[in-house]
Design goal:
single chain, 79 residues, mainly alpha, 2 helices, 39% helix, membrane, Cbb3-type cytochrome c oxidase subunit 3
């Protein structure tokens, strides 16, 4: 088998694979799944998850209660 025959067979296999994937993607069975996936960016979540909790946690060594507000709690120990 020479290089030209190998390339021809490979081209035929790739064309068949392309047509198979295209047929699968545009089949009527897949349409509801793809329509649902297309609308995912517009879905409204009931709960917004804040993954960065480090900003909302209080890191107070004194154990005082309340919120960590920089206007009220400046860390002055001599007040």
């Amino acid at each position: 088998m020479d290089t030209g025959t190998f390339r021809g067979i490979l081209t035929l296999v790739l064309i068949v694979a392309f047509l198979g994937i295209t047929w699968w993607a545009y089949s009527r069975r897949r349409k509801p799944d793809f329509d649902e996936a297309a609308n995912l960016p517009f879905a409204d979540d009931d709960e917004h998850i804040n993954r960065d909790n480090s900003a909302s946690r209080r890191h107070d060594k004194g154990g005082a209660t309340g919120t960590a507000d920089s206007r009220n709690n400046r860390g002055d120990k001599n007040t």
